[in-house]
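User: Can you fold this complex?
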Amino acid sequence: MKQFGKILKFELVGYLKNKLFVGITVFLVVAIILGMHIPKLLSEIDIDDVTEDDIKIMLVHSDNEALMISVRDCFAEAFEQYEVKVSEEGEEYIKQQITDDQADCAFILESASSYVYYVNNLSMHDTNTATADAVLTELCKLNAMIEGGLTPEEAGEVLSVTVSGTTETLGKDQIQNFFYTYIMIFALYTVILLYGQMVATNVATEKSSRAMELLITSANPTSMMFGKVLASCIAGFSQLVLIFGTAILFFNINKEDFTNPLLASLFDIPVELFVYMIIFFILGFLIYAFMFGAVGSTASKLEDINTSVMPITFSFIAALMVVVFSMTSASVDNTLMIICSYFPLTSPMAMFTRIAMSTVKWYEIAISISILVGSTACIGLLSAKIYRVGVLLYGTPPKIGTLIKTVLKKND
Amino acid sequence: MQLELNNIKKSFGEKEVLRGISFKAESGKAFGLLGRNGAGKTTTIRILMNVFPADEGKILIDGKPIDHKSIGIGYLPEERGLYPKKLIIDQLVYFAELKGMSARDAVKSIDYWLDRLGMTEYRNKRLDTLSKGNQQKIQLITALAHDPHIVILDEPFSGLDPVNAMLLKDVVKEQIAGGKIVLFSSHQMNYIEEFCDSIAIINKGEIAIGGELYDIKRNYVRDRLVISSTEAKRICAELGESCTMTEDGSILLRLPSPNEKGAMMRKLVERYDIDEMKVFEPSLGDIFVEYAGN
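Assistant: Here's the predicted assembly.
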């Protein structure tokens, strides 16, 4: 136990003295502080000053002159960011105008219910056709109602009827929870992978520099493995706390400037979820870091590390993919996610996501955490045994399956 | 204090690495553990240091099973290596603490050893800024700082210049004089002969020969004569295949039996002009080659 404390302290001080670790942390904290001030800075800049360069040109053409005029008026109202101009000339002229950058886009209408949209480069965020569809549908309905005998005022009243309703979410609001869950999952993924690799590299460095020769004769392998992994866990967790803490602190300082509800929702995380985040982070981190440490001990050279850790990295990426696809397809309670939320290598992300975005029974969470705790302890002890054997082996890294068999055969 | 390894056996999978290693080493004396590469020396040392257990056999201190918590062991491994990017004082304190010292005692002891080995100026430098020889001296401190009962030195002189080798010799002598059990493993036989009273030569996991170095030499078959003569060529021509000329011009004459020493000596003195004649005393190197050579 005494040795474990010494190893933990030594490894932790190693992280704190590591210029890269400190540099990245400071950089991220500063970046977050700056980022949290952006809404304030933007609110202080007069965004109403729109220059002439910002005004975009939209051309409208139709052989039916009456349609062209009414469409121009409707479009001018619907497309506020455009100056809508009527073009007397036809398709060739309009195409030329767009390719010459004289106009940004154009609609050529055959009728009120049929058009061709012209644009030079179609942006991913271009919603002009959707807006045009809505405007033209309204126009068609209006014309039909007028033709049916209604006055334009009556027709206008019919079309302007709005329905008001509210949603009472009894469970979780997936729209609101999506973004912060997404951020937390990626934070979990990045930190576990980054620090897991650091543990593996740390062990392999000791082995390749032959410091291991002294270490194994000076300290108990279990203490060494647990000391290293816990030190990296504390370092990674501290880094996360610092980064998230800074973000929350500066959000609260600049809260009034966060007018975007989506952005503000990122910081509206329930305390309960934070607690689950911490539990799953720690357990997920430990289970993967133990595996990374064990694999690192089998590599003789630093170059071997990338190949050796590949199976662990792939299993972790697979877990992330399942979670992200389930999140984006809005089905976080699908069968695969339910299985993944109990399997210890995927449960830190899968169960956390289900808790954040769905309603999970307390005993399901308890079972998942219990399996994870038990598996982490077993993998920790197995890793320490692999470490004990692995650090003495030089040359081609042994197959991990063979190593586990060797370790399990031993009674010591 | 007496360290005794009794019939130590160890296999890794199907490979039998140690097949019953036994030897005794005593306080205030150096013991030479010799053998070719892969003979089983490092495995023996690792078992002694409790890195892994023996399959069979016992390690005893004064007749009782060794208690690794109370018996300190200092080890200078053949494969040198510490943390290249860390400060020397930090890593020396770390290793001393792992050996059970308090931080304060560790710093005190390390400062003594840095001074003793002329390394004080490097105390707060990174290890990779030091020359190979100086790195080796730092590593030696990890073996000695916690004042162990048993000091294991594996090839301690390799890579050292003559001045540092002399310094290390003094340190080893101090350790022996201080009542430590010094286990010495080296292929440089001159150092073994200089320090060790007893040796064990391990060959293929077994003790090929062991005991007091003096006795081993005395018991070596005394069937060769070293002859210095102005008529060396004539002697060789007349005595035929049993004679070989050595590099220094003397003759090494192998006898059919050690019992014929006296008769042969008288015969040679009568027939030839002999300057000097003695029974061949083997060096440790000769003994090593004979017992570990195949």
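Chain A has a mean pLDDT of 85. Residues 4 and 223 of chain A are 5 Å apart (CA to CA).
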